Amino acid sequence: MMPTRRRILVLTALAALASGFRLQAQNLSVGDPAPALTVSSFVKGDPVAKLEPGKFYVVEFWATWCGPCRVTIPHLTELQKKHSEVNFIGVSVWEQDQDNVKPFVEKMGEKMAYRVAMDKVPEDAKGSEGAMASSWMKAAGQDGIPTAFIINKDNKIAWIGHPGQMDEPLEKIVGGSWDLQAAIAEHKKAMQEREELEKIQLKIVKARKSNDPKELIAVLDEIAHDRPQLEAPLGPEKFVALLKLGDCDKTLAFGKHLTEKLFAENPNALNFVAWSVVDPDVKEKRDPRLVRFAVEVAERADQLAKSKSAPIADTLAKAYFDAGQKAKALETQERAVQLAKGTELEKNSDMQERLEQYRKAAKE
């Protein structure tokens, strides 16, 4: 089924390693003076010409097209109400069309009850080339939104992060109990860690492009050895590489390590492992031992999901079918199709085609 299912877990794991592949030169950090406020206009609230010493500011970057930004907007409004002494400024960046900003803000109404401004983008330039996007976000090595900067009374950046996580820092900064030196050290450490993780991503990408499973496995093993905490998120990719290598004994050994130790209580991860074995897009015939392993793993995933997951039931049915258990395959696929009703999988033709395939096979 769905080539996306094979990719979802791996892509999610890699996203957890770092926020992106761009290694940006960082010249703005916690503890540095806040850059200039260079916006084209304010679409809500009294304009702020510049950030003044003696005042607190939260400069938050968002965009109309950004789903997570929409989620945090009401939270920012609540924080603005709670901290009237803080000047909240939401700056719209990376917009494909800045004409969308004002109507969006007007539609949000009181849900977005703080100042809102638009980035100053040169004529004929891309939204990512705006003044604020460059002097704040890019300079600070931030490539994801929403992102907030808290500016203290000394006009210095006291904190950078996701606005959903700034309640405590803001409280302490306003209350005068914030340890800026500790925050500087913590931010520096976090950015160094992110840079290392981005380098790891690039190393994995390079190994992938070689199309050599041995090379990819060697890289993944090296990373897991140096950083044991990454063995689980990288495990699925290594398992797929081992399948391509064709060494059944090594594949089974690592598969059992994944499913019995690292993913024992994770139905979606177990489902990924089982599906990787029985994926119909893979033309090579699997060793019967691997198919039996897939059945066991898929059954465990189905139990953990309380038999209520359409993708997992679909995987289990395919595993039963490959194992020659035609009646069980048909029964389980019927359940999968039933569970898919009312979800995005209902339109997936592959599931229905497999159901017809199992029905035909059951009659033979």
Task: Describe the protein in words.
With 364 residues, the protein is α/β, with parallel strands linked by helices. It folds into 2 domains: 3-11 and 228-363, Serine Threonine Protein Phosphatase 5, Tetratricopeptide repeat; 31-178, Glutaredoxin. 55% of the residues lie in helices and 10% in strands. It has 14 helices and 6 strands. The chain has helices at 3-17, 67-82, 101-108, 131-138, 167-175, 180-209, 213-226, 231-245, 248-262, 267-278, 288-304, 310-322, 326-340, 349-363; strands at residues 39-44, 56-62, 86-92, 115-119, 147-151, 157-161. The chain has a 6-stranded mixed sheet with strand order 1-4-3-2-5-6. Strand 5 and strand 6 (157-161) form a beta hairpin. Helix 11 packs antiparallel against helix 12. The longest helix has 30 residues, at 180-209. Mean pLDDT is 91; it is low at 1-24.
